[in-house]
Amino acid sequence: MKYMDEYRNRDDVHRLADSIRKICTRPHSIMEICGGQTHSIVRFGIDQILPEEITLIHGPGCPVCVTPVEMIEKALRLGAMPDVILCTFGDMMRVPGTDQDLLGIKAQGGDVRFVYSPLDAVGIAADNPEKEVVFFGVGFETTAPANALAVKTAAQKKLSNFSMLSSHVLVPPAMEALLSSEHCAIDGFLGAGHVCTIMGCTEYEPIARKYKVPIVVTGFEPLDLLQGIHMCVRQLEEGRFEVENQYARSVTQQGNTEAQRLLREVFEVVPRKWRGLGPIDASGLQLTAAYRAFDAEHRFPLDDIVAHESEHCISGEILQGLKKPSDCPAFGKQCTPDQPLGAPMVSSEGACSAYYRYRRSATPATADRGE
Description:
disordered N terminus; 18% strand; Rossmann fold; 11 strands; globular; 5-stranded parallel beta sheet
């Protein structure tokens, strides 16, 4: 189906919305996987122009948001060590641990630096041989290859002062965890286009067959999302449960095989705890035995760290798609970007951040449809 050829002008949005309305005969709940998709949906009001029968559920598709508090606390401890330079991406600096964040550690004298690439951290290690340089690696399959390359480069350069605190997670196991939940109300998925650019589409096919849910790999622009919703609704109406690729301009069936090879070389699949979802089998990546010397959790004393979520934060329910940010009593009050209770309020892909920026003036009862 040539969606990108059929919809080109400024009327495309309304044409697609009308087409969805015409083919939709019953209620459908569709979860978008990626937090970037959530921000586009909320920013451009995509959920507000859909027929009432369509409910969009915001998924746990923000790697910053699903990073557990324990892992944040490990980063905080490392950042406070006098001989450590902790490097990470900028969106991790404000993510709250139990009592503070990495910006607070930096303000107290810790050498915490935000970088634009994990290879920047490798360069910092080469320039500071007297310091231990730790890169806090967070992300889905999208960012994992670049982080794997950083570790491999450090090994090739024999940089014994470089290590990685790895909090990488994998999307398909989380989808299965959501579909297996007794609270599941998901009829179909919009898959994350950037993840599938790396991994391809084939690993989603067993999920679609097993749970009888259509999965449409989708991009991030408004037309991408509306086209993905249209394809998903059409499948649901026709009783089909297949993996379709709306984002064909970036995603191939097999994905980036060279990036996948690098992931297999540097990482191995392990169980991983997700904020809001708990432990999920085979849902994380840790360094293989060949690269274990670069694993910060093996190099530093971090095993004793225990942390807890704020009792006022419902980010777990939001990340599972059970509640919207506007349902939280603390939203926009005790919890703001300046004083966040949870990661979804400060992450650039967090659902709470999107609602605070684009829907804050709406009341909880009308926030989802902009009434």
